[in-house]
Design brief:
heterodimer, A: mainly beta, 2 domains, six-stranded antiparallel beta sheet, about 10% helix, about 45% strand, elongated, B: alpha/beta, five-stranded mixed beta sheet, globular
């Protein structure tokens, strides 16, 4: 390397390939960054900084960073009998202006034996919506308000289209992973039912989603 | 030898319970607490054997089994669970 003609000015030093910059190590030695190191530095910068759609590790994290991701949790409720019970009504209201992109839908029950059945229906006929469930923000403190509505124990006259059915053993959790690809447009209802394996078992349902302009 | 396990349950706590009428359930609990509970045997749990026939009944059906002649309330076992009283009657023959 030639002598530096003006040592007080800003100087960019490249490695032998003339492309990748060099760095000064803690031992005051010049070290050229490899392409791998450079990529890692860029990734680290993106993690520290505000993600964009291009730099976020995935779309879920990007929506969450923007405050557009939400969740509900029913906590555990005891179901008295063992017949199919209308448990949660999840709604994207008519005219919301947003599409709900479900990231995951989860079900757990905490005692008993046997297999309980967890079913998901689209667009049931709703007689009464039930008890409101609190919607929480995935980015705590975000100013973005959710448009989705969730209710416990709705009254349903017809359950609609059976989207999925799953059997689940006790003391375990089932996660229906949708990766934002289960999309509910405005005016869509989703019903979750539970058919307990036995009487007096405790069940909980929780879900995460993002709300985006369709 | 086979056993017959007659079982019913009533909710003494109806918070976060789906599928019961709290008023109706409270009446059942009051009936049991007032008239029968002190005569029954408190147990932690019942674990049915492999040769046990488990028969679930409603509270009124269960009460009808306790005729005061062949079956007494002192024959009844109950467990005080988190939200329910589980009532059990074990017999060697169906009744």
């Amino acid at each position: 390397m030639a002598d530096i003609p003006n040592p007080t000015g800003d100087i960019t030093i490249f490695g032998a390939d003339g492309v990748y910059p060099a760095e000064v190590t803690s031992l005051n030695e010049l070290k050229t960054l490899s392409p791998q190191e450079l990529a890692e530095l860029v990734a680290l910068k993106n993690l520290i900084g505000n993600p964009t759609s291009a730099t976020a590790p995935d779309l879920w994290q990007y929506y969450t960073y923007l405050g557009q991701s939400f969740q509900y949790n029913t906590t555990f409720n005891t179901i008295s009998g063992s017949s199919e019970t209308d448990y949660v009504l999840f709604r994207n209201p008519v005219g919301s202006g947003k599409a709900i992109r479900i990231h995951d839908l989860d079900y757990t029950y905490n005692k008993g034996a046997g297999i309980s059945i967890f079913r998901v229906y689209i667009n049931p006929t709703v007689t009464s919506v039930g008890t409101p469930i609190t919607i929480n923000k995935k980015r705590v403190g975000s100013t973005v308000a959710p448009i989705a509505l969730a209710y416990l124990t709705p009254t349903i006259s017809a359950r609609g289209i059976n989207y999925r059915s799953f059997g689940q053993s006790a003391v375990s959790t089932f996660e229906l992973e949708c990766h934002l690809s289960f999309i509910l447009p405005a005016g869509t209802d989703l019903l979750v039912t539970i058919q307990p394996a036995a009487n007096n078992t405790d069940h909980a349902v929780f879900s995460d989603w993002s709300e985006v302009v369709p | 030898m086979a056993e017959y396990l007659y079982h019913t349950y009533i909710y003494h706590t109806t918070t976060d319970v789906i599928g019961v009428d709290p008023v109706v359930e409270a009446a059942k609990v009051a009936d049991f607490d007032t008239n029968y509970k002190s005569q029954c045997i408190l147990v932690s749990d019942i674990i049915p054997a492999a040769t046990t026939f488990d028969i679930n009944l409603g509270y009124l059906e269960f009460k009808a089994k306790v005729d005061g002649v062949n079956i007494l309330w002192t024959d009844i076992k109950y467990a005080n669970e988190e939200k329910v009283y589980d009532l059990y009657l074990i017999t060697n023959a169906p009744i």
